């Protein structure tokens, strides 16, 4: 009798747990549907669909469509201005062709091999952020920093995976060979629930906006990087203490001169020089780091949790290279190898995370609480070799500014140039100079290197690298194939979005506090 009663209660407990799970899933779906309905009421105006103008070139935005429904493999998406991806003419649909394979329709004059793409991915991901990784570990601790770096690296890599997978699916549905990051967001909203179609242009604009803010924010960080390294060397030889802002202002004419170059081809030699200088500088920096390393027991394994948001912002600033992913994948000879197993992405990100974790771990182990915003600033000021490293890194980052500046300038100018007639070239130069002056002014206003890096990472890269890919994945597969058993796709993307939002809010708050406190002191 007791066994029967026990079995009955066990069955009853399982039933209650199952009902609770169904109730939670239903609540999540209800919230999602309420949000969709709310968005539909906020904007009932007909949406504006951009189309390719074969006669005049460029795009037209005078075609108004309402109740626009996108079904799989039926309606092509057209590419609008504001993108860094060239416009492509949509091939007509062949009813007898069957399933559309976007990779077979990519017409590339110089497609890159898997090895070339891997090299470009490493170059695109290994930037100035590696110099700030020891500071990130200082805000996390030696043990927790190592664990968290690999965890954030894995999450960032997974978000790139779902972004590229969504892009492949949307290319097949829309029957286009390739899509850029912003176009993927636009096509996802056009392929999702009908209530979201009118938000497709807004989604694309938000991606482009955060890309511009991110890249221009990086340009501001580069100005602080260069100025601080040059100041250390000059101050040592002149035995003076000139204000850091003076060096930033002195960089302005040189930045304007270099960034008036409009053709990316002419910037390639500077890119090669920057790569050589960074590689040499990092090699010498490792030499100094491994001299008389202290015991790991002399460093904190984990620090106070109030510093973790600074670690998050700095680490994601260093690790996140999502802006270069879609252009690299779109130019591959075999795009399916990009997210395969092991795949170009997994291989590249493994080495990137390993290198960043190594620099952060050993850099913090060497300098401890005295770790500065750039590990080069911790090198001995009186040593000639260390001074050469600082100059090399300063020159490399100076030229990297031009490469970072190119993409946001392209996005901004493509949205502005149709307002001007024959004066386009003169206006473009004026816009370039104005934006360069703006980055210098912001750098002068916020010379705190560590706080600035963390702020850019928390604001821009948590959205671009975590939140937006999760939203795109959710919207792309919302109807086909659906949310899956127990709505696992909804839960998974909700967790990614929450993680990104927590990092965004806490990282921004702590970074701004750090900047304000440094100014007061």
Automatic annotation (TrEMBL):
Coiled-coil positions: none
Locations listed in the record: Membrane
Keywords per UniProt: Membrane, Transmembrane, Transmembrane helix
Location (main, coarse): membrane
Tagged with keyword Membrane: yes
Top-rank taxon: Eukaryota
Residue spans crossing the bilayer: 21-42, 142-164, 205-224, 244-261, 273-290, 310-328, 340-364, 384-408, 429-446, 452-478, 490-512
Stored InterPro entries: AA_transpt_TM (IPR013057)
GO terms for MF: L-amino acid transmembrane transporter activity
Classification via PANTHER family: AMINO ACID TRANSPORTER, PROTON-COUPLED AMINO ACID TRANSPORTER 4-LIKE PROTEIN
Protein name: Amino acid transporter transmembrane domain-containing protein
Source organism: Ignelater luminosus
């Amino acid at each position: 009798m007791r066994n029967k009663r026990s079995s009955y209660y066990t069955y009853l407990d399982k039933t209650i747990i199952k009902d609770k799970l169904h109730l939670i899933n239903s609540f999540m779906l209800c919230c999602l549907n309420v949000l969709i309905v709310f968005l539909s009421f906020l904007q009932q105006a007909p949406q504006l669909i951009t189309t390719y103008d074969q006669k005049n070139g460029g795009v037209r935005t005078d075609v108004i469509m309402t109740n626009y429904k996108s079904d799989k493999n039926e309606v092509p998406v057209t590419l609008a201005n504001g993108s860094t991806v060239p416009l492509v003419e949509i091939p007509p649909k062949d009813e007898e062709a069957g399933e559309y394979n976007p990779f077979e329709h990519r017409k590339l004059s110089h497609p890159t091999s898997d090895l070339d793409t891997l090299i470009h991915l490493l170059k695109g991901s290994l930037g100035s952020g590696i110099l700030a990784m020891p500071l990130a570990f200082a805000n996390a601790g030696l043990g927790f920093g190592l664990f968290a770096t690999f965890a954030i690296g894995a999450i960032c890599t997974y978000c790139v995976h779902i972004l590229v997978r969504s892009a492949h699916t949307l290319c097949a549905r829309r029957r286009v060979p390739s899509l850029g990051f912003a176009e993927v967001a636009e096509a996802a909203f056009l392929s999702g629930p009908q209530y979201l179609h009118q938000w497709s242009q807004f989604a694309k604009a938000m991606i482009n906006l955060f890309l511009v803010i991110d890249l221009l924010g990086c340009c501001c960080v580069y100005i602080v990087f260069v100025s601080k390294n040059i100041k250390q060397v000059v101050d040592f030889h002149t035995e003076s203490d000139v204000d850091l802002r003076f060096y930033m202002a002195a960089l302005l004419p040189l930045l304007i001169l270099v960034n008036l170059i409009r053709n990316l081809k002419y910037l390639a030699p500077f890119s090669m020089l920057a790569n050589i200088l960074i590689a040499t500088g990092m090699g010498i920096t490792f030499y100094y780091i491994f001299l008389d390393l202290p015991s790991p027991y002399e460093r904190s394994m984990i620090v106070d949790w109030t510093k973790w948001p600074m670690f998050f912002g700095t680490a994601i600033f260093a690790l996140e290279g999502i802006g270069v992913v879609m252009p690299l994948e779109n130019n591959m000879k075999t795009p399916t190898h990009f997210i395969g197993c092991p795949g170009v992405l997994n291989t590249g990100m493994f080495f990137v995370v390993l290198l960043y974790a190594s620099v952060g771990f050993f850099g913090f182990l060497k300098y401890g609480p005295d770790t500065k915003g750039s590990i080069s600033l911790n090198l001995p000021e009186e040593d000639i070799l260390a001074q050469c490293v600082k100059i090399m890194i300063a020159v490399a980052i100076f030229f990297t500014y031009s490469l970072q500046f190119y993409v946001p300038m392209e996005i901004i100018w493509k949205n502005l140039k149709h307002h001007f007639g024959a004066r386009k070239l003169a206006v473009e130069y004026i816009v370039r100079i104005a934006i360069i002056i703006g980055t210098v002014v912001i750098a002068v206003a916020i010379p705190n290197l560590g706080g600035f890096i963390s702020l850019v990472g928390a604001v821009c890269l948590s959205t671009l690298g975590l939140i937006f890919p999760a939203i795109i994945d959710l919207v792309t597969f919302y109807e086909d194939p659906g949310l899956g058993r127990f709505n696992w796709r909804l839960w998974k993307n909700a967790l990614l979005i929450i993680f990104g939002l927590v990092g965004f809010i806490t990282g921004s708050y702590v970074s701004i506090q750090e900047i304000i406190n440094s100014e007061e002191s």
